[in-house]
Amino acid sequence: MARLPEYLRALHHLAEAGHDTVSSEALAAAAGVNSAKLRKDLSHLGSYGTRGVGYDISHLIAQVEHILGLHLSRAVALVGVGNLGHALAGYGGFASRGFKIVALFDADPTRVGEQINGLDVRHIDELATTVTTERITIGVIATPAPAAQIVADLLVKAGVTSILNFAPCVLNVPEGVDVRKVDLAIEMQILSFHEHRKSAALASGEAAA
Ligand SMILES: NC(=O)c1ccc[n+]([C@@H]2O[C@H](COP(=O)([O-])OP(=O)(O)OC[C@H]3O[C@@H](n4cnc5c(N)ncnc54)[C@H](O)[C@@H]3O)[C@@H](O)[C@H]2O)c1
Asked: Nearest 5 degrees, angle CA 88-CA 96-CA 106?
């Protein structure tokens, strides 16, 4: 499942570049996996490609989007419209990937009423009613960490069943609610570890020479 969004990104990229079909090798290279794994993954979807032609890109996009449930265009609420929230709300690329941010919330009255990308920032007190009227199923939290659990509780109470958390903290949610966490600092720390190992290897190579 985790590889499907990578295939989808690569397929959209190929379609935008004007391709109609793609070989398993080219798609695997674009998605950063090996081609045997890709062929096996796609065979589970019932896609085998045509010998000498490859995979029909638009058909495969439709299949992967169907499996990921993206054909339904998910309604998303974003809570916390500060530095990060502004950037996310202003990004126009989510709609073509199956998501639509339909509502923005903040607790700061000075932010309420501001327009970003055609949406008014609403007060957090309006969350429950908006989740119902806009049929929101995914909530994005971009508040400071101390507010994140409070916001998660409000989202869950309102009926949201998936949360993407950008705040650096662990959220407690009831069973049936999915939480994914994004933390750029953790990714940087992993890269830092690799850098550290590379310089240590270089230093020991130089010492041996
Ligand atoms: N995951 C990452 O890679 C990553 C990267 C950058 C920032 N962050 C995190 O994202 C969060 C936001 O960062 P920022 O720089 O945009 O902060 P910010 O202070 O600029 O914005 C936070 C916003 O949340 C609002 N807020 C506070 N409490 C709220 C509540 N109870 N309900 C609704 N809104 C509320 C504030 O009014 C403010 O507008 C922080 O937790 C930060 O650590 C994560």
From this structure: 25
- Give the CATH number of domain 4-70; options: 1.10.10.10, 3.40.190.10, 1.10.3720.10, 1.20.1300.10: 1.10.10.10
Tell me the CATH number for domain 73-185: 3.40.50.720
Q: Annotated binding residue at 84?
A: yes
Q: What is the mean pLDDT of residues 3-10?
A: 92
Ligand 1, residues at Cβ distance < 6 Å: 79-85, 105-108, 111, 124, 142-145, 147, 150-151, 166-168, 182-184
Tell me if 19 sits within 8 A of 3, measured CB to CB.
no
Least Cα distance to 143 among 119, 117, 169, 121 occurs for 169
Q: How far is the CA of 143 from the centre of ligand 1 (A)?
A: 3
Per-residue pLDDT band at 96 (split at 50, 70, 90): confident
To test the pocket of ligand 1, the residue of 83, 84, 125, 190 to mutate (highest count of ligand atoms within 8 Å of its CB) is: 84
pLDDT digits (tens, 9 = 90+) for 38-95: 999 988 888 777 877 889 999 999 899 888 887 777 899 999 999 999 999 998 878 7
The predicted model gives 87-116 an average pLDDT of 91
Which residue's CA is the closest to the ligand 1 atom numbered 18?
Answer: 82
Q: What pTM did the predictor assign? A: 0.81
> 93 among the known binding-site residues?
no
Domain with CATH 3.40.50.720 in the chain: 73-185
